[in-house]
Write a structure and sequence with these properties.
The chain is mostly helical. It has helices spanning about 5-10, 25-35, 50-65, 70-105, 110-135, 135-155, 160-190, 195-200, 200-220, 235-260, 265-270, 275-290, 295-300, 310-320, 325-335, 340-375, 385-395, 400-405, 415-435, 440-465, 475-490, 490-500, 505-525; strands at about 40, 530.
Length: about 525
């Protein structure tokens, strides 16, 4: 027997014997629940806490028994818009940075880009790590409204320093938002529909398309042409972009607060010893949509108490929340992410994947147009064509995650096979992109790039929380986002110094790194297509 199978048998919970002598009703529920979905729980990622594994199994059975409801449709759209906001922010900043520099700075090193990445990293840490301490609900409900408020302030600034400060604060909230969206959706989703966690990344393309349309509408006719003379009165386009984007985000924030009215996720609640609240959240959905649910509070309690050490940390931090408490809880969660050999292997491979895609994709695109220009090509004769092509690229990119959602449902493909396909196809298209010499070629290859790379990106985004345990899910996602964004922050540095030397080496190295992501995907030990997320 292989080491993987031995460890799996050691860590999986035999749920058919949950308190058999004292709780016949629990056994009946587990057996009934198992007929709802034949998939086993991915319990190996838990840190040996049998009581928590039993509770998670009961929660999974209850969610599967209730099934897919209008609540899940709303959550798909509203949580999915979190993907949209993250990509919108990046595209807006990328589109306006030149005109902001013309008006306020006059050129030089792209400091605002580094500030943008710093905001994303900070947000991932504060909201991501904090979501495992104080819960998903607060981060989920507050992030978008903070993004919009500081976004409006960014558009109204009159100095480069203030622009960077308010943009930083806005991206802190946006970066924290995406760290929780995918975890929230996954923890409410029936296992039969887990493929939607991949397809939800289509909202990323929606956000990029919205940002592209905003830039296309305002920048060509409301921007100065150089930094020689660029007062605010002839350079209002970048402000209009920030105002419009922030207004859209504010609308989404209000939908979260007053339409969805999200409660805390049941899996987070049971992992913190709050069985009564978890049961109430499950029953709210069951009662609202008139769906059957056999779960009882007593069955959750009969599973026993969760790990005392973690429970004591959770109780302490629920009373007093500060940097010390955040550090204690985060360190405890990080240890869960490295709790046994298979989990260590999985965590390292996922973090490495985020590091690689973060640096390679950003650097490739920074160098691509320099390479094309050096080889006699031109990808845009006017600002109008540049933004038109960008909008087309982003629109086509919407459909990559949708295809990815279908691919993962094919038994012999699954999550890992889909990531392999996305990485290899993305590498092939990116290398083909280097042959482009015309605006029409740029539009075609750009669209294909977004389509295939988004297949990989969408699957990686969904796979990441699926193989992390409930207690440390938001922490794990935050670590991965930080890894991707720290490495992405080196893209402007590489671009700035590489562009000076005229070297084309980075473009080929980064393309090859994107292809190497397929090897990492093959080596990942878990296939969530065959098991339920915990």
């Amino acid at each position: 027997m292989s080491e993987s199978l031995q460890e799996k048998q050691t860590y999986e919970v035999d749920v058919s014997h949950v308190n058999q002598s004292d709780n016949t009703a629990s056994v009946d529920l587990l057996e009934k629940g198992d007929t709802v979905n034949s998939l086993q729980d991915l319990t190996i990622v838990e840190d040996g806490d049998n009581a928590l594994s039993k509770k998670i199994h009961l929660i999974n059975n209850a969610i599967d028994e209730i099934g897919f409801t209008w609540f899940h449709v709303q959550l798909f759209c509203i949580a999915g818009f979190g993907y949209s906001v993250d990509s919108q922010m990046e595209m807006i900043q990328s589109g306006v940075k030149t005109y902001v520099d013309y008006q306020m700075k006059g050129g030089g090193y792209p400091a605002a880009t580094e500030v943008f990445y710093a905001g994303l990293i900070t947000g991932s840490i504060l909201f991501g790590f904090g979501a495992d301490l104080i819960g998903r609900k607060i981060a989920f409900n507050s992030s978008l409204i903070l993004t919009s408020i500081f976004g409006f302030l960014t558009g109204g600034t009159s100095s480069y320093a203030m622009y960077c400060i308010f943009m930083f604060l806005s991206t802190v909230a946006a970066g924290g938002n995406i760290a929780t969206d995918v975890a929230v959706f996954l923890e409410f989703l029936p296992s039969k529909y887990q493929y939607l966690n991949t397809s939800m990344a289509a909202w990323w393309g929606v956000g990029q398309t919205i940002a592209g349309l905003i830039a296309w509408a305002f920048l060509p006719n409301n921007s100065c042409s150089s930094g020689d003379y660029c007062p605010s009165k002839i350079n209002r386009g970048w402000r209009y972009c920030w105002y419009t984007n922030s207004g859209i985000v504010l609308g989404a924030a209000l939908l979260r607060l007053f339409v969805l009215k999200l409660g805390e996720t049941p899996k987070f609640l049971v992992s913190n010893g709050r069985d009564e609240e978890a049961y109430e959240e499950i029953m709210k959905i069951s009662n609202k949509y008139n769906r059957p649910c056999s779960l009882t509070l007593q069955q959750l309690k009969d599973c026993g108490e969760i790990n005392d050490d973690y429970f004591n940390i959770s109780k302490a931090t629920s009373i007093k929340i500060g940097l010390k408490e955040l550090w204690v809880t985060t360190w405890s969660n990080i240890k869960i992410l490295f709790s046994n050999k298979l989990v260590i292997r999985s965590t390292i491979l996922i973090l490495t994947s985020w590091l690689f895609i973060g640096i390679s994709y950003s650097v490739f695109y920074n160098f691509l147009y320099i390479y094309i220009a050096d080889h006699g090509g031109s990808t845009g004769t006017s600002t109008y064509i540049v933004y038109r092509n960008a909008t087309l690229d982003n629109f086509v990119g919407i459909f990559g995650p949708i295809l990815g959602g279908f691919l993962i449902m094919i038994p012999k493909v699954g999550r890992r096979g889909t990531m392999v396909f996305g990485a290899l196809a993305g590498m092939a298209i990116l290398f083909g992109y280097t042959t482009v010499r015309t605006p029409s070629g740029d539009a075609g290859f750009g669209s294909a790039t977004y389509f295939f790379v988004n297949i990989y990106y969408a699957c990686l985004y969904a796979y990441t929380p699926e193989v992390f345990p409930t207690r440390a899910r938001a922490t794990g996602v935050a670590l991965c986002l930080v890894a991707g964004r720290v490495s992405g922050a080196f893209a402007p540095v590489t671009y700035w110094y590489g562009a000076q030397s005229g070297s084309s080496v980075p473009i080929w190295v980064c393309g090859a790194i994107i292809g190497s992501l397929s090897i990492l995907a093959i080596c990942m030990p878990f296939e969530p297509s065959k098991q339920r997320s915990v």
